[in-house]
Each structure stands twice: as C-alpha cells, then as structure tokens.
C-alpha cells in the first residue's frame, strides 16, 4: 500500500469526509463558545457569588469535572430522554461538550480572578469605581491574560473530545472516516489521515492563541 | 464655619474578636497635614482604610466634608449605603498605597485617566489633558506611555500619586508610600508629597520617615495599640514626648 493509493482513497471519499470535518468543526466551535460563556458565569459565581449559589455551582463544576466526558455524552443522550427532554444525538453531544467546557473554563476563570492581588481591587475602589466598572476595566483584562493559555488547552481538549460523539451516532470526522474504512478497509491510512486533520485543527487553535497572547502581552 | 474635611468620632474597628481601633477621635480642617506614626500593628493602616471605607467599622463616625462614610443613621439604626453611593464617597478621598497598586495592563497615563473617565465622567480628551497636567506635576510626563513594569518603584509611586490626586479629592491618604522603595528612590516621592502639601492639599499620612513627618505636618499623631497615644505639633511631639512609649519609639526609629 503506497501513499498515492491512500490519498486516492481519501480523495474518492472526500465528500463524506469533508462533511465529517465540517461537523467536527461546528460541534467544537459551538461547544467552545457556549461553554466559555457559561464558564465565565461559573467562574464569576465561584469567585464572587454568595455562599449558597457558590455551593451549588461548586457541586456542578466538581461533578462535571469528575465525570468522564464519555459518560457525560451518554448521560445527555440517554438519561435526558428518560426525563422527557428529547435531544437529537447532535444536540445532546453539543450539550455535553458545552457542560464539560463550562466547568473547566469556570475553574480557569476563578483561578485567574483570585490570582489578581487584592491591591488592584483596592486601588480601583479608591478611585471610585463600582464593582462592574472595576471588573470591566481592571480585573477582567488582567484575568484574560492568565486565562488565555489554559483556555486554548481546554479548547483543544473539546476538539479531541468531540470524537466521542461517534458513540451516539453523530457522524463527525472520526465516524465518517470509519464509515469509509468499512467500505475500503484502508484503516491504517485513513486513521492516520483523521489523526492528521485533528492535529491541524488543534495546531491552528494553538497558533492563533499564541498570536493573541503575544498581542495582548503587557510590556515590561 | 464649614464642616471639617475629616471628622472621626469614637471609631472602633475589630477583625473578628480582635479590636484593632479602640475609639479614635480626629478632626482635620482644610489644608491640614497630619502624620500618623507608631509601631507596626498599632492600627495606622486600618484607620486610613476606614476613611475611604476599604474597611467597614462597627462603632463611631467617619465623615468626609460633613458626609458620613459608608452608612446612614436613621432613628438610631445604621444601614450600609448602596454600592454606588459608597463608590462616590470613596472618590472624595484619594489614596496612595505602600505597593503603588498601579494597573499593570495600562500605561502611566491610562492609569491616571481611568478614574477621570469612569468615575468623573470626563471625555477621553478632557481626561488626557488633566492626566498630563498631573503627570507633569509629579515629573512623569515623559514616561506617560510606559507600563508600570517598565518603571522604577519611585516612578510607579509618583504615577500612583498622580492617579489619586487627579481625581481632585478633598483629602489625600498616604499609607507608607516610601516603605517599599529602595533608599535612593525615597526622596523623589517625598518631594512630590511636600510639593502637594505646600499647595494646600489636605493630607493624612502614615510614615516611618520621622524627619519627613516633622517637616511636612502641622500635627503628628502617635498611635499605640489601636488608640491615639499622643498628639500635637511635630516640634512638641518629637522634641518633648510626654510618654515613655513615644520616647522609646522615637529612639528606636532613627530620627
Ligand atoms: N484584614 C485583616 N484581618 C485580620 N486582622 C487584620 C487585618 N488587617 C489588619 N489586621 C490586624 O490589625 C492590626 C493593625 O494592623 P494595621 O492597621 O495594618 O497596623 P499598622 O498599619 O499600624 O502596622 C494588626 O495586628 C493586624 O494584624
Ligand atoms: Mg500599615
């Protein structure tokens, strides 16, 4: 089996594979965006919330982070339908990844906010800023610089975790490739190809992350 | 006569069971410069922080320009003011900190402009020209576009003072603003404060620089164990301390 033959096989199956890539990208991006928005909320509550809501959100976050994503995905697909929430496999998958992402982003945001020295808050208060103004102008911009590297890491984890949706029948990149393999038996070549595409996606995410990191770095 | 700039009556403050301020009384008129001295842990910082409500207090009164800070008293019941009102009251005083606390992600001039824009509601252009004026005053105009990490400690502290004073506060609070500085950088900061004092700024400052306290203040307060141990004009306090405690304190702090 030479490389040309493998490329040939990929080329022949380009449409289903492209569709798989498209779904992987869509699922990942949507989960990351929604998970990040939710996660910032989680982080804010964990840092500034009153005792009770903080306790509840801490349970939420610990539970999600302590559960394998695989189990989360199965739970969202099978258990939710038992309690009357009917989600398609696609929706359930995105839902599970969003929850997973939010718990991790929540911890990252909390850590970053708590790492800001108390003197920053005091200085901001002393010039008459309300909490909201202080958060927007002083705390968040500093937290963001802390968050970014770890957040990029979480984003790549989500892309990788999206392959698990194949279990509940979502035809993302991995499953689309598996379907082609079942017809062509070119498993080695096609799995290698799939792996390479995942690598490219995550490589791109990390590159962009680095770029932004450098752009917003504070000169010293 | 108009109300004093700062009025503190019977102020008590505790952290848990530990009472840190045990009944402080203090009045400052326009243009007063008062230095707080005393050994570490005597409550100087806490007193300063009660004035702009970085700490709340249980008993007593703190009033700036006739307005009680942090609370309203109604029918003998005290309630905490809203966050917005407290923020507005905090802007009546300016504070400079031991560790400068500049915003590291903003240039020097942005640090000064932030409060002018967000609290005072100035336009960017207006804020910039006010900020430039004060950076010039503290000798930092040429470093206006530097980030705090690119400045020496003394330079950072001068920017921090500009940030506080640009807000046009009624009263400036200085908490050991030279304690974190290398010895050779102390004077540039003290000179800025001296210059502001000459200009008639009302100032309450905590310092370990006894010579400076002597030169700049019209009154010095020796704090001891959460109380005012001794107070008076600098000459009297430094030359003829009444209590043994103050005498010992002065002997141990190289004056
Ligand atoms: N946030 C706090 N919680 C508990 N104790 C505190 C806190 N801040 C200050 N203290 C205590 O209050 C006392 C007075 O502190 P401080 O006002 O900083 O004194 P000074 O500035 O004169 O050194 C010290 O014993 C200190 O340990
Ligand atoms: Mg102190």
For the record, give the distance between the C-alpha atoms at the N and C termini of chain A, rounded to a whole number.
Answer: 55 Å
CATH class of chain A: Mainly Alpha
If you compute it from the alpha carbons, what radius of gyration of chain A comes out, rounded to the nearest whole angstrom?
21 Å
Largest β sheet strand count, sense and barrel closure of chain A: none
Question: What is the N-to-C order of secondary-structure elements of chain A (H for helix, E for strand)?
Answer: HHHHHHHHH
Q: Based on helices, strands and strand pairing, what is the structural class of chain B?
A: alpha/beta
N/C terminus separation of chain B = 38 Å
Query: What percent strand of chain B?
Result: 25-35%
Overall average pLDDT of chain B: 95
CATH architecture of chain A: Orthogonal Bundle
What is the string of helix and strand elements of chain B? EEEHEEEEHEHHHEHEHEEHH
Kindly give the count of domains of chain A. 1
Instruction: Give the largest interface.
Output: A-B, 22 and 29 residues
Number of strands of chain B: 12
Strand content of chain A: under 5%
Radius of gyration of chain B: 18 Å
Indicate the low-confidence ranges of chain A by residue numbers. none
**Which ligands does the model contain, each kind named once?**
adenosine-5'-diphosphate, magnesium ion
Let me know the number of strands of chain A: 0
Which term fits the overall shape of chain B?
Answer: globular
Number of helices of chain A: 9
């Amino acid at each position: 089996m030479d490389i040309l033959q493998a490329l040939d096989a990929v080329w022949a199956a380009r449409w289903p594979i492209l569709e798989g890539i498209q779904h992987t990208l869509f699922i990942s991006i949507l989960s990351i965006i929604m998970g990040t928005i939710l996660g910032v909320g989680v982080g804010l509550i964990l840092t500034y919330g009153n005792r009770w809501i903080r306790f509840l959100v801490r349970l939420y976050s610990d539970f999600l982070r302590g559960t394998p994503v695989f189990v989360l995905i199965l739970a969202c697909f099978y258990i939710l339908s038992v309690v009357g929430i009917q989600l398609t496999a696609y929706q359930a998958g995105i839902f599970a990844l969003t929850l997973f992402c939010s718990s991790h982003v929540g911890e990252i945001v909390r850590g970053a906010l708590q790492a800001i020295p108390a003197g920053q808050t005091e200085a901001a208060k002393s010039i008459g800023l309300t909490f909201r103004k202080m958060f927007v102008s002083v705390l968040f911009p500093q937290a963001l610089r802390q968050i970014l590297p770890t957040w990029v890491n979480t984003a790549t984890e989500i892309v990788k975790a999206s392959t698990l949706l194949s279990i509940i029948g979502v035809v993302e990149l991995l499953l689309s490739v598996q379907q082609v393999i079942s017809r062509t038996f070119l498993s080695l070549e096609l799995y290698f190809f799939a792996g390479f595409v995942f690598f490219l996606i995550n490589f791109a995410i990390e590159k962009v992350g680095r770029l932004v990191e450098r752009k917003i770095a504070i000169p010293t | 006569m108009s109300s004093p700039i700062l009025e503190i009556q019977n102020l008590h403050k505790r952290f848990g069971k530990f009472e840190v301020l045990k009944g402080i009384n203090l009045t400052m008129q326009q243009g007063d410069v008062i230095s707080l001295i005393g050994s570490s842990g005597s409550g100087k910082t806490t007193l300063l922080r009660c004035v702009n409500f970085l700490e709340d207090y249980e008993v007593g009164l703190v009033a700036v320009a006739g307005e009680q800070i942090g609370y309203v008293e109604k029918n003998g019941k005290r309630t905490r003011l809203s966050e917005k009102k407290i923020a507005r009251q905090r802007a009546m005083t300016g504070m400079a900190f031991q560790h400068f606390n500049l915003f590291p992600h903003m240039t020097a001039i942005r640090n000064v402009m932030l409060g002018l824009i967000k609290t005072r509601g100035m336009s960017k252009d207006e804020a910039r020209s006010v900020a430039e004026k004060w950076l010039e005053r503290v000798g930092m105009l040429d470093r206006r576009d530097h980030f705090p990490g690119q400045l020496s400690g003394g330079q950072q502290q001068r920017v921090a003072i500009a940030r506080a004073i640009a807000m046009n506060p009624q009263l400036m609070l200085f908490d050991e603003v030279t304690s974190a500085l290398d010895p050779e950088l102390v004077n540039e900061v003290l000179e800025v404060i001296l210059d502001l004092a000459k200009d008639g700024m009302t100032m309450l400052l905590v310092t370990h620089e006894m010579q400076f306290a002597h030169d700049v203040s019209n009154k010095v307060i020796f704090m001891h164990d959460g109380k005012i141990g001794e107070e008076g004009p600098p000459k009297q306090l430094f030359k003829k301390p009444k209590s043994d405690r103050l005498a010992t304190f002065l002997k141990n702090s190289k004056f």
